[in-house]
Amino acid sequence: MPWFVYLARCADDSLYCGITNDLVARLAAHNAGKGARYTRSRTPLELVLVRRCATRRRALQLEYRVKQLTRAQKQLLIATPAVFATLTRSASRALSR
User: Fold this and answer.
1) Is the per-residue pLDDT at 65 higher than 90?
2) What backbone torsions phi and psi does residue 5 show, to the nearest 5 degrees?
3) Cα–Cα distance between 45 and 56 in angstroms, integer?
4) What is the DSSP letter of 1?
5) What does the pLDDT look like over 66-87, one tens digit per residue?
6) Prediction pTM value
7) Is the pLDDT reported for residue 13 higher than 60?
8) Is 33 left (phi over 0), alpha (psi -120 to 50) or beta?
9) What whole-number distance in Å separates Cα of residue 68 and Cα of residue 91?
10) How far is residue 43's CA from residue 49's CA, in Å, rounded to a whole number?
11) pLDDT digits over 44-61, tens only?
């Protein structure tokens, strides 16, 4: 079963990163106020970027790297989705180009 790393824009314009193996159900849970504590008061959420991963381990690694990025770097990631694929190799190198 594939896993997904997603970046969502909250109603207050903040960005939230998470992983799931059921993207539709997870987004519905967030928007129903049943998702992560951070997103409960920031609904509705809009998916802005999604990356499929073969394993949960890979998804967790990518999520960690995304969460280490600054807001500006996350905005660059949204504007240039191809960079998302290279993030698993080296977050800082991929975004400094």
Assistant:
1) yes
2) -105, 130
3) 23
4) -
5) 999 999 999 999 998 788 777 7
6) 0.85
7) yes
8) left
9) 9
10) 17
11) 999 999 999 999 999 999
CA triple 25-30-13, angle to 5 deg = 130
Number of domains in the chain: 1
The token pair that represents 79 in the structure block: 């504007």
Are residues 43 and 26 in contact, defined by beta-carbon separation less than 8 angstroms?
no
d(CA 97, CA 88): 15
- Give me the chain's average pLDDT, please: 88
Domain holding 43: CATH number?
3.40.1440
Nearest to residue 8, comparing CAs of 61, 58, 91, 66?
66
To the nearest 5 percent, what fractions of the chain are helix, strand and coil? 45, 20, 35
> Which DSSP symbol is given to 43?
P
For residue 4, how many C-alpha atoms fall within 13 Å in the half-sphere facing its CB?
15
Q: What is the domain range of residue 42?
A: 3-95
